[in-house]
Amino acid sequence: MKRAHWLLVFSSLGSASPLAQGADLTPPQKQLRGIYQELVETNTTNSTGSCTVAATKMAKRLKAAGYRDEDVRIIVPPGGPAKGNLVARLKGDGSRKPLLMLAHIDVVEANRADWSRDPFKLVEENGVFYARGASDDKAMASVFVANMIRYKNEKLALKRDVILALTCDEEMVPSQFDGAEYLVKHHRDLIDAEIALNEGGGGYLDKDGKPLRHGIQAGEKIYQSFQLEVTNGGGHSSLPMRDNAIYRLAEGLSRLGKFEFPFRLSDVTRKFYEKSAQVEQGQVAADMKAILADPPDRAALDRLYAVHPMHNATVRTTCVATKVEAGHADNALPQRARATVNCRILPDESIGDVQRTLERVVADDAIKITRIGEGVASPMPPLTPTLMNAVEDISNDLWPGVPVIPTLLPGGTDGRFLNNAGIPTYGISGMFGGPEPSGAHGLNEHLRVKSLYDGQEFLYRLGKRLATE
C-alpha cells in the first residue's frame, strides 16, 4: 500500500460500535478476533512467509462455515508456490453483477530486533492491536472473511454473488506474482464484478478523538521507481580523485531533495479540501480554504504539510530517495554508486514527463536514470449513486453528521489492476484513525481495537446492502 493505513492509529473514538473498553465481545466480534489473530500470526512476508499457507487457513474457515469446495479456490501462480490467492463466492440469484471484496494478505518485512514486540504475534494492549499487518491489510482481510461467514449463516436473499479475493504480493512492486494482476489476466471470470471494495479509505479523527470525516478513495497515484547510477573507473583510495561516484550521486540527490513538483488540484482533491474545510476548525480550516485560491496560498500549504505530509502528497507528484548503495571495498575508490528514487505520480501526469524532470533536476549527465519496472496508471472510478447512497447512509447511522469525502490515495493499491480491467474499485473501510501514523511498513504497526470492530460493522452493513438491494 499506499493508503490510508496512515489514518489508522491509536486514538479514542466515540462511535456507534457496541464494543466498549473491557466489554465482552459480541459473537461476530469473537469470530473476527479469532480470524484476525490467525491471519496476523501467519507470516506472509516475501522472505520467509507464505501467502499460500494463510490463504489455505482462511479457506478452511470458510468451508467449516458451509462453503462448498467448488466455491472456495486456492490459486497459486506458476513459479510462485508461496504466492497463493484465495477466491471464494457466495452465490446470489444473478439478477445483478457480483460484488467483489478485495484485500491483500502479504505484509512488509519486519525485523524482530527492531520491534518492541514480536511482529508476528498479535498483542492487545490498552485498546490497541500491535503486529505486522495489524492494519495493512490483514484487518480488512479478516473482516471480509468474517463477513462472508456471517452472510452465509444468515442465508441472505442476495441479488448478486458476493466474491472474496485475498491476494498476495501487493507489497512487492514490481512483482511477477501480484495476485490481483494475475487473477485479472488469468482468472477474470472468478473475480468479474460490477463493483469492488478495497483498502485505501478510512475515517479521520481530530487530536481529541472526534470523528471529522469518512474518506472513500476514488483514485490513486502511479507508483514508479527509478534507479540513479554513477559509474567510473575507481582506483586506490590512497590516490583520491575529484570525480568520485559517491559524491556525484550525492550531489544529484541533494538537488532532488530540494526540488518540489508543481501544486495541482484534481476534481477529487479540490472536493476533498472544500468539504474538509467545512468540518475542520481554526487555522487548519482557514488554510484548506486558502490553498483553493488561485494562486494557492503557499504559507497555508506549508502549515498543512506540517500538520501531516498527506497534505503535500495529495496535491503534487512526489519523488524521494529510498535506497543507496555504493563502493566495493574500504580501500578502493567507488566504481559505482546507485540510488533508488520512488515516485508517486499524479494520475493525469506521465511517467516520461517525470523522468525528464528528474534528469533536469539532478543536472548531471553522469547520473544515469532508468525506470525500475513500469508503473501502472489507472482511471479514477465514478462515484455512482448506488455506492455513495449506501456509504453515506450507513456512515451516518454509525457516525451521525460525519461527512463522507472522496479522497485521492497518495500511495497505491491493487485497485489499479481492477480499475484498468473495467471493475470500478473503491477504498472504504469504516476504520477511523487520527493524525499519527499507524506504523504500517514501519515499526510497531498497530490498529486500535475499536477501529477493527467499527470497520467490521460498517463493512458488514455495506456489503449486505450492496448485495441485497
From TrEMBL:
Instruction: Tell me where in this chain the Peptidase M20 dimerisation domain is found.
Output: 221-367
Q: Which PROSITE patterns match?
A: ARGE_DAPE_CPG2_1
What SUPFAM superfamilies does this protein map onto?
Bacterial exopeptidase dimerisation domain, Zn-dependent exopeptidases
Q: Name one Pfam family in it.
A: Peptidase_M20
Matching entries from Gene3D superfamilies are given as:
1.10.150.900, 3.30.70.360, Zn peptidases (3.40.630.10)
Transmembrane domains' residue ranges: none
Query: Which keywords does this Swiss-Prot/TrEMBL entry list?
Result: Hydrolase, Metal-binding, Protease, Signal, Zinc
Stretch forming the signal peptide: 1-22
**Family note:** Belongs to the peptidase M20A family.
What PANTHER family does UniProt report for this protein, alphabetically? N-FATTY-ACYL-AMINO ACID SYNTHASE/HYDROLASE PM20D1 (PTHR45962), N-FATTY-ACYL-AMINO ACID SYNTHASE_HYDROLASE PM20D1 (PTHR45962:SF1)
Question: What is this protein's record name?
Answer: M20/M25/M40 family metallo-hydrolase
Q: Which organism is it from?
A: Telluria antibiotica
